[in-house]
Amino acid sequence: MSLSRCRSLLVAAGLALSLGLALPAAAVQPDEMLADPVLENRARDISKQLRCVVCQNENIDESNAELARDMRLLVRDRLVQGDSDGAILDYMVDRYGDYVLLEPPFKASTYALWFGPVIFVLLAALAGWAFYRNRAAAGPVAAAAGPAAGAGKPAELTAEERQRLEALLRDADRG
Amino acid sequence: MSETSTETTPPAAPSQGMTWGRRLIFIAPTLVFLVLIGFFLKQLGENPAELPSVLIDRPVPEFALDPLPGRGMPLRSDDLKGEVSLVNIFGSWCVACQVEHPYLMKLQASGYVPIHGIDWREKDPMDGLRWLQRYGDPYTRVGLDPDSRIAIAFGVTGAPETFVVDKQGVIRYKHIGPLTPEVFEKTLKPLIEELRK
C-alpha cells in the first residue's frame, strides 16, 4: 500500500471516529461540580432546562459561554443553600422572563404555542376531507370538466370544432 | 384543468353551487398566511438578542458591590434611591463599551444625570480600574461584579446595557448595546425629564 493511500485511510478513520464521538458535550467543568452527587444531579437537571441567554439555542449545561458558567455556579450555590428546583427556575424567570426556559410554560399566554400545531393538523385534515368528499360527490368527469359542464359526459364537439381538430391533426402529421 | 383553477375563474364558473363553507377552505389559508406575514414582518426589524426586560417597573435587586481597588464609592442598591440615575453595565474586556465610552464621558461632563457603573466579570479587579484610568471615568459609583451575581439579578445578557432608575430605585428602562446620542436624546432624556417631575 502506498504511503499516500495509507494516510488517506488514516484520515478517513479519524473523521469517522470524530463524527461518531460528536455527542452534545456538557460544558460543566470539574471545578464547578458539587461534591454531593444528588445535588450535582439536580444542578445538571435544572441547567438543562435553562437557556443560555447569550447563545439563545443552547442550554447552560452545554454552553461554554462565560455567563452560562456563572449561571451554572449560581444554580449550584442556591441548591447548596437549600433552594428547591422550582425556586431556582422561578428566580431565573423572574429576571429573564419565560424566555430563559427552553420549554415554554403551560399558561394562558402560551396556549397558542401548545395547541397551535394540533389545531393546524385538525384544520388540515378537515379541509382535506371536505375537498375529497366534494370531488367524489361531483364525479370524476365533472370534476375534470369543471362545474360549468354540469354532471355527466363531456359536451359533444360541434361540427366547426371537429373540422379544426382534423386540420390540426393533419398539420401535425405533415410537419 | 385542476379543481382549484376552476374556482378562480368566475366568468366560466360563477359561485353557483359553491357554498360558503367551501369558499372558506380557500379564504382561510390566505388569511392565516397574511397574519403570519404580518408577524414575520414585525419580527424582521427586531434583534432576537434584545429581550424585553421583565424587570421594568420593578425595584432594583438588593445588592452591595465592592468598589474598584482604591477608587472608593462602591455601589449598593440603596445608592440608587433619591434621584434619577443611570446604571451602566460595562467591563474592560467589552469592545462595545469602548464605543459608547466617549459619549458617557460627555454625558458626565454635562452633569445632566449621574451614571453608576457595574464593572462586570473582570478577571482581575485592577483591569477595570486601569481601563477607567486609560479612557476616563464617567461614573459616580462603581461596583465590582466578578461572578455575574448582580448582572444576572438585573437580567443582563451582555455588555453594555444601561438602566434608567427612578427616585424610588425602580427600574424604568433598559437599553441594550452602546448608548448613542440619538438613543439618549430621543428615549432616555424624555423619560428622565418625566421621572424627575
Describe the structure.
The complex is a heterodimer of chains A (175) and B (197). Chain A is an all-alpha fold. Chain A has seven helices and no strands. Chain A has helices at 3-21, 37-49, 66-80, 85-96, 111-138, 140-145, 159-174. In chain A, α2 (37-49) packs across α3 (66-80). Chain B has helices spanning 3-7, 20-44, 95-110, 125-135, 149-153, 181-196, and strands at residues 85-90, 115-120, 142-145, 161-165, 171-176. A five-stranded mixed β-sheet of chain B has the order 3-2-1-4-5. In chain B, a hairpin with a 5-residue loop joins β4 (161-165) and β5. Classes of the chains: A mainly alpha (175), B alpha/beta (197). Chain A binds chain B through residues 53-54, 56, 66-67, 70-71, 73-74, 92-97, 99, 123, 127, 130-131, 134-135, 143-148, and chain B through 1, 3, 6, 12-13, 16-18, 21-22, 25, 28-29, 48-49, 51-55, 121, 147-149, 151-155, 157-158.
Gist of the model:
Chain A is mainly alpha-helical.
Q: Can you lay out the helices and strands and say which pair or pack?
A:
The complex is a heterodimer of chains A (175) and B (197).
Chain A: H1 3-21, H2 37-49, H3 66-80, H4 85-96, H5 111-138, H6 140-145, H7 159-174
Chain B: H1 3-7, H2 20-44, E1 85-90, H3 95-110, E2 115-120, H4 125-135, E3 142-145, H5 149-153, E4 161-165, E5 171-176, H6 181-196
Parallel strand pairs in B: 1-2, 2-3
Antiparallel strand pairs in B: 1-4, 4-5
